[in-house]
Every structure is written in C-alpha cells, then in structure tokens.
C-alpha cells in the first residue's frame, strides 16, 4: 500500500470477499447437502443449516459406489504417475543437458512436440495401442520383414501381444508419456554451476555417480513440486480411466462418481451424490492445502 | 543455453533417454500416426482389415451438420469460459496484490478450486444448478420455467461454462498473482511519487508488464477448454439437450467408443489436433506481437 485510498480499499475488500464467497460456496453447499436427509435436500430453498445425517450419507455413498477399493486404485495410479514422471523426466533431462551426442536436438524436439497434443485428442488410437501394447513393435517387425525371416528360419510365427486394458500399467504408462516434467528438470539442470560437474569429474565420479550423488539431491525441491502437481493431475484424470477400466475392480474414484448421478424420475438422492462428491474431492483438496507451496511452485515451473 | 562441461561417453547418455523415448514412441507417436491411418481408411464391419477411402471420412464429417454444431459449441464454450475465467482471476489477483489486510487468506483459498477433479466439481454444480432442487430452484419458483439445463440448450451451455470457469479462475489466479508480485515495488512507488493513482498505475505499469502472462494463460485456457471439459460435460449434460453441449472431445468419445466408428472418430481427432495447432499458432502470430516482454 503506497498511499491512503479508503474508498478504493473498501471496494478491494468487497470484491475480494465476493470472490472468496463464490470460491468456497460450492464446497460449503456440498458439505451441507451431504448432511441432509432425502426430504430436506430437495426442499426449495434448501436449508443452509447442516442436517444430522452426514455420517449416514457418507456411509451410503461409500457402499453404493464401493469407494474404498476405488480410492485405493486412484491412489495407486496417482502415485504411479507421479513417481514415473519424477524418475523418467529426470533421466531424460540429464541425458539432454549433460551429454553431447548426435541426434540430441532431435530427441529434444521429439519430446517437446508431445506437449502440443494431450491424451484427450488422440484417445482412440492410444486406446488401441494399450489393448495390445506390443502392436507397434509387431508392425515394425512385419514391415521390415524380420518376422517373415524368423518364420522361415525357425518356423515360429511372431505374434507379439500384451494387453494392458484393466491394469495399472495400462492406466499409468500413457499418462507418463508426455514431456511436462522433462523441461522443469532441464531448466533446473542448466542453472547448476559447471564447477560442480568439474569438481565431481576431478574426483573421479562418472556420469551415473554425479547424477545420483549430486544432481538428484540438488533437485529435491523440483521433485517435490513435480510430484505434487502430477499426483493431483493423475488423481483428477477422468476420460482415460473411464476407457481403460471396463472391469469394476480397476475403476477409479473419480469415474465412480457417475454411478451417483441421481436417476431421472423419482426423488433425486442428491444427499448421497453430494456425500460421494465430498469423499472424492477431499484427497486432492487435502494435498493442495498441505502442499500449497509445492503445488504453486510446481504449477508455475512445469508450465513455463 | 548449453553446458560447457559434459560427460564423454555419449552412449551412456542416450541410455538415459531411452525410457522416455520408448514411452513417447509407444503411446504418442504410434497412436498419432495410427490416427492418421484410420482417418484415411474405413474399417469393414465384419473384419477383413481396413480399406483405403482417402479423404472420404473427412468429407462425410465436414458435411455433417452435427459436427459443425459441435465445433460451434466448442468455440463458444472456449471463448466465453476463457474470457470469464481470465477476467475474474485478473481482477482478483490485482486486488490481492494490493496486500491489504487479509490478502494472505485470499491467496490461500482462491487456489483451492483448481485442485478439484472436473467431474467432482461438475457433480457439485449439477446439484447447485439443478432446476428442481438446489439453488436455481429458488429462481424457478419465482419465475417458473426460467431455468432448465435439461431442456434448454443455452442453460446447459451456461452450466458447463460456470463449472469450468470456477475451476480455472483458481488456476489463472496463481499465475496472475505471481506475475504481479514479480513487478518491482520500486516501479509502483516511483509512479506513486509522480502522482499517478491506483487505476492509472494499473493500466500504465502493471498491465503492460503482465501481458506475457495474459498471453500464456490465453493459450493454456483455450487448449484446456478443449480437454478438461470432458468430465464436466459427461457428468453435467452428457452432450445434451439436443447436442447443445456436445463438445468436440465428447463427440469423439461418443462416436468412437459408443458408436464404434473408429474411422470417423480418428478423423475428428485429426481435425481437433489441427484446430488446436492452428489456434496456438494464430495466438503466437497475432497476439504475441502486442505482448511486452521485459
């Protein structure tokens, strides 16, 4: 605040307060609706005083959508994606920054382009690949005539097939296959002083030793930021899990929400729907609140 | 920028990049190529491989009124929700940056919506905006028939725009606030010394300095409005009523996986990819010129 502006300050407070109310109102409404019974939740206007059925509704939503195993699935998948990104991106960035080899810029651009087209727009063919993840390699063998050669020589017909539908790897791997984290690490590695590398080499450390003992400990902050943001991103995925998990035992918490949409006809069970919504939105919210610093940092660093 | 000191054995270097290269080849480049192949062929209904049909898939899609309707709906959705989310976030961030009492609270809370999964917030808004219960029901009691996203296409579109904007206000807010805070205080103070007021300082100093952020968010918001909208549409409207909210990604999903028309869905994917690329290039070409980089 540079000067006294009482009038403008009043407006600032007013507008920020309105923004605040609009921001938390949906959370509040969900919690209150989840605490009503069937009759109260359908009252017009709905009472803004919490009802007494909160735990009953939570329990009903939990069993109806079978949320226990679904939350576990979501957790496994989100952790897998976050860990995969943190590790794979670090390796690639190390390769791009610390080595000089032919085709390095090509690799850089190949990875960069993946940022342009997210999973949602190439969903149909990606689904087909996951149905048989070795299909690209089979096609390559067929086209180059290697499978023909093998068949002639050994009489074995080459049929590579590995379906990843309804599996954790099928859920996780395609989500790891983008470039988001690579550039975060690249930017950071470029700021690491060359003297460190020189000193390490002088002491006889090879590339692997330098990477594990010096570079990774230095990137701890970046890993936390990237891990947080990727965990949330993966937890909130919807379209991909919806396609890949036709089997109930692999369904995610977020996709199970659909089961709770009240039927048309009859009195809509909004109290159960809102209880389920609350359960599903709570874990990412907790992560955002507890990890806010990393979350903000990760967002800003991964996108720039 | 390049490193001066590097490691000699480049064979080891390539090994480090192999995991990611395998992943993007298998799950990115192959599928993308496959989409092009499918879009140019037609799968025979009783097996027997694909037959080459050239651009027929594109022709049949582009002559379909439903598809144009879907493009229009996507562009309307992208335009309005991006505008809303960015404008509101800009105002809130500018005001939070004035650092009056309580601004720390806003800084924490206004970010929360971005953490919520699109389908979960869609469910919350489906209830809040439901015509028979929730809050719009009160309005409907006063003016019967005023609001019904289940029957009125414009109402349904408004619902998904509200839900999407609510989430992305939080996202944009983070970036705008970071941009405002990166402006040196001394600049603001010097301008105040010269006698310019708060509004004047905003337009003459802060706004020009955050144009790179505005540009960046414009690109991201529009791209996200094509992808992240899927969960919202699926939970809130399922593309209805009468295809009023059948956005492009939703249509690809329903044609490809419910209608089992892979070739048509692949052709639509290609068009969507091209559209996103063209929009991004357009923004770089024409809007970035007006951006002041420091």
TrEMBL record, chain B:
UniProt keywords (A-Z) are:
Cell inner membrane, Cell membrane, Membrane, Transmembrane, Transmembrane helix, Transport
CDD domains assigned: TM_PBP2 (cd06261)
PROSITE patterns in the cross-refs = ABC_TM1 (PS50928)
User: What kind of membrane protein is this, topologically?
Assistant: Multi-pass membrane protein
Report the domain of life of the source organism: Bacteria
Write out the annotated subcellular location: Cell inner membrane; Cell membrane
* Listed transmembrane segments: 12-32, 71-96, 108-129, 156-180, 201-220, 265-287
Chief location bin: membrane
Q: According to its UniProt record, which protein family does this protein belong to?
A: Belongs to the binding-protein-dependent transport system permease family.
Q: What does this protein do?
A: Part of the ABC transporter complex UgpBAEC involved in sn-glycerol-3-phosphate (G3P) import. Probably responsible for the translocation of the substrate across the membrane.
Subunit structure as annotated in this protein's UniProt entry:
The complex is composed of two ATP-binding proteins (UgpC), two transmembrane proteins (UgpA and UgpE) and a solute-binding protein (UgpB).
| Stated name of the protein | sn-glycerol-3-phosphate transport system permease protein UgpA
């Amino acid at each position: 605040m540079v000067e006294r502006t009482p009038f403008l300050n009043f407006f600032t407070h007013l507008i920020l307060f309105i923004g605040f109310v609009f921001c938390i109102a949906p959370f509040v409404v969900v919690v209150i609706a989840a605490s009503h019974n069937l009759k109260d939740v359908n009252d017009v206007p709905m009472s803004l005083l919490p009802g007494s059925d909160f735990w009953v509704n939570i329990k009903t939503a939990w069993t109806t959508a079978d949320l226990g195993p679904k939350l576990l699935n979501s957790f496994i998948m989100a952790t897998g994606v976050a860990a995969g990104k943190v590790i794979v991106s670090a390796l690639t960035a190390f390769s791009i920054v610390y080595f000089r080899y032919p085709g390095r810029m090509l690799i850089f651009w190949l990875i960069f382009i993946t940022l342009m087209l997210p999973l949602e727009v190439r969903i149909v063919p990606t689904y087909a690949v996951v149905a048989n993840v070795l299909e690209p390699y089979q096609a390559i063998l067929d086209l180059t005539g290697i499978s023909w050669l093998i068949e002639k020589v050994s009489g074995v017909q080459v049929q590579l097939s590995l379906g990843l539908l309804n599996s954790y790897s099928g859920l996780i791997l395609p989500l790891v296959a983008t470039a988001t984290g690579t550039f975060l690490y690249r930017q950071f590695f470029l700021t690491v002083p060359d003297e460190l590398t020189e000193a390490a080499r002088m002491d006889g450390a090879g590339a692997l030793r330098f990477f594990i003992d010096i570079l990774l400990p230095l990137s701890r902050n970046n890993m936390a930021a990237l891990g947080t943001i990727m965990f949330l991103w993966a937890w909130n995925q919807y379209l991909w899990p919806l396609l890949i998990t036709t089997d109930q035992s692999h369904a995610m918490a977020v996709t199970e929400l659909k089961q709770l949409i009240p039927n048309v006809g009859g009195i809509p069970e909004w109290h159960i729907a809102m209880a389920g919504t609350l359960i599903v939105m709570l874990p990412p919210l907790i992560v955002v609140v507890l990890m806010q610093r990393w979350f903000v940092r990760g967002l800003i660093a991964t996108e720039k | 920028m390049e490193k001066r000191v590097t490691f000699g054995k480049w064979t080891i270097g390539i090994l480090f990049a192999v995991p990611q290269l395998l992943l993007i080849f298998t799950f990115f480049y192959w599928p993308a190529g496959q989409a092009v192949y499918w879009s140019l062929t037609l799968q025979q209904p009783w097996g027997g491989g694909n037959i080459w049909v050239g651009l027929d898939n594109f022709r049949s899609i582009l002559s379909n009124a439903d598809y144009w309707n879907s493009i229009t709906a996507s562009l309307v959705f992208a335009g309005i929700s991006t505008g809303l989310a960015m404008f509101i976030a800009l105002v809130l961030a500018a005001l939070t940056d004035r650092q009056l009492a309580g601004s720390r609270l806003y800084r924490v809370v206004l970010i929360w919506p971005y953490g919520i999964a699109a389908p979960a917030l869609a469910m919350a808004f489906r209830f809040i905006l439901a015509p028979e219960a929730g809050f719009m029901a009160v309005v409907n009691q006063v003016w019967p028939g005023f609001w019904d996203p289940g029957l009125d296409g414009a109402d349904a579109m408004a619902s998904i725009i509200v839900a999407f904007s609510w989430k992305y206000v939080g996202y944009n807010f983070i970036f705008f606030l970071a941009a405002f805070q990166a402006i040196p205080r001394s600049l603001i103070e010097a301008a105040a010394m010269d006698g310019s007021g708060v509004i004047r300082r905003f337009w003459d100093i802060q706004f020009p300095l955050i144009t790179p952020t505005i540009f960046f968010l414009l690109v991201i918001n529009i791209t996200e409005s094509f992808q992240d909208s899927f969960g919202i549409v699926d939970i809130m409207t399922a593309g209805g009523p009468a295809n009023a909210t059948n956005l492009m990604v939703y249509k690809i999903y329903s044609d490809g996986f419910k209608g089992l028309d892979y070739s048509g869905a692949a052709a639509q994917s290609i068009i969507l990819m091209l559209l996103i690329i063209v929009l991004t290039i357009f923004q770089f070409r024409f809007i970035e010129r007006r951006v002041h980089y420091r």
